[in-house]
Description:
The protein is of the alpha+beta class. The chain has helices at 2-23, 49-52, 362-368, 377-405; strands at 30-33, 41-47, 63-65, 71-72, 74-76, 84-90, 93-94, 103-109, 116-124, 130-137, 144-152, 163-173, 177-183, 192-202, 207-210, 213-219, 224-241, 251-258, 265-272, 277-292, 305-309, 311-317, 324-327, 352-353, 359-360. The two termini are 17 Å apart.
Amino acid sequence: MKALNRILKLSLLLCGFSYTLLAQQTTFKYKSELAGVDSAGYYRINLRPDLTAKAKTDLSDIRVAAPDGGFVAYVKAGDMPANSQYRFVTFPQVKTKDKQDTSTVFVVENPTDGPVKQLWLKLKNTAVERHLTLTGSDDLQQWFAIAENMNLGTAASTDDKGIYEQQLTFPASSYRYLKMVINNAHKSPVNIREAGIYTYLPVKPQYVMLSRLTFTQADSPNHVTHIYINFDEAYPINKLYIPVKLNAYFRREVNVYTQGKSPQWLTSKTFSNEDEYINLSVRAKSLDVQIINNDDRPLPVTHVEAYQSESYIIARLEPKKIYYLIFGNDTATAPKYDLQFFTGKIGNHFPENGHFAIEPNKAYQTKQAQPVNKKPYLLWLSIAVAIAILSALTFSMTREVNKKKV
């Protein structure tokens, strides 16, 4: 009987928990199924413009719904470490006429704009001891000493990568060319594969084109050209490209406004044949780009392109499971997950994943269709009835067990 009571309590608990999880999804208007994955891990889920147009501007209403009705923790692109990547920058090798009978000579060009104070050599694994001299030059003719008799290390016995990395540290040098001379003392030379530095490089922002737009050009009598741009939805917009078909130099001032009864000024810039891009940050369905012509003729605008910044979230997904993105809740706030504290430990390169067509969230539609006078107590009444039925069954089974004992 104790086991039966435990099963009864567990069943009720699971029913209540499942209802709570599913109830969380009823406040979101839209959903979109994620593509399946082949292996468990963290994935970069790219958010298409048709999704960001229906979500909140800050994307705080996006949730990743799991098969059990709960939500999967995720982090947005802006929550990841600084927008840079740690990369190895290879210095181009320069061939010279240096004699290499008793030494290994390796010359590289510094492609950076500033001085360097360290250099990494990548060599084929070696267990020999050599000394290296480093010199610098700006013309490949006259060389100047930077560091002498630098010890060249050896690969560890456990190194199975086939490549050994040696770090050279020296006073900051701004020479265009760096020459490394390794004294082999009539012995076999070492094999230097490349040289360079490890550094943090900024990652250029990526954009997604907004394809569903139309535009018209209107030249007003006050020497202002209006480019009216219209979209099918109110998209987040971060860049405009307005190419001008004119075989001449031009330089005009441009102002960008929203359209409507109360136009809002967004940005201004100098528009020229050398820069036909306009950066901005707005969520709008229509724009009015005003080009100030002064006494020049209106510019012939051939077409217009609009872009929004690439948006994505990172979440852990598992194979053979169906996940959904749900969104479209103006009152939702950004979720707080433990994952935000471990962004530096989940890696910096993630397989890309996407989502399918957007559709109405049936859970939201069902909730909205409920009669206005329906009260919450009906839910609790239903639960009470279920408890009563289960209790009656338990009582009946208890009586049967007692009869058998008699």
